[in-house]
Structures are given as C-alpha cells and as structure tokens.
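Fig. S4 source data, part A: sequence.
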Amino acid sequence: MTIIVLMGGTHFHQEEIIKDFGAARPGRIERFSVGGLVDPQRRIERYKFIFSRKTFDDRVTVVVGVTDADEVAALRQLGAVFCHVRGPLAKVFCSVPMLMSDLHVFAHSWRGSKPDSVLTPAEVLSECLIRFRKKVG
C-alpha cells in the first residue's frame, strides 16, 4: 500500500488533486481523514492501526487533515510520502522541516506559476509507485 499525505494548499485544491488521483488510477484511491478526532495521540493511534498492516497491493491511500508535528513524524515512520500542494504552506511546517524526498503537486485549477519540480497528480502517483517498487523489490 502506498500512503500519500496531502499538505498545504487550499481545501478546494486538495479535493481537486484527490479527484485527479482517482481519474489516473480508477478504483485504486482511498481518501483517509481523522479530522473528527481532536486529540493528536488518538489520530496517531488510528494511523498506526490502519497503516501498520503490511499489504503489497497497488492501492493508494491519501491522508488529509494532518495538523500536528507528532502526526507528521508518525506518518513518516510508517513510510508515507508527503506531498505539498502548491499554495499556502501547512502551518505544521513552520516547526517541522520539509524533507528533500517530499513531493510537490499542483491542482489543474492553479493559476500561478509552477516550477518544473512541481508535479501533476498523475506524476505524483507514478513517482510513488516507483518508490514503492524499490522498497518491495
């Protein structure tokens, strides 16, 4: 299983990217949010319960709503790929560093300029599948 954590941007842009993920990989994308759980420790417990199971299918779970530094650390430990949506930076990254391995994505409705290092949703999925195969192989 591949875990992608969408961070930053606007809610509209995140939803648009999830829709584009679904168009690129029909039937293989799941959206996961623990936004209803206020306590960060409860959220981390849920991530560990859901994502610690070793599955080697080609499903992609897209996590949204991560707001706490401990959540970021737990998801990184579980092997999640962090994907920053072009636009406003997620507030948690004022205190937690982004990594060189993090990806950057833009929604098709984004009207601003885009550096070459910012990927389309389909390119993000391709990069994640390549990384997953390298870990498994």
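Fig. S4 source data, part B ends here. The two ends are 14 Å apart (CA to CA).
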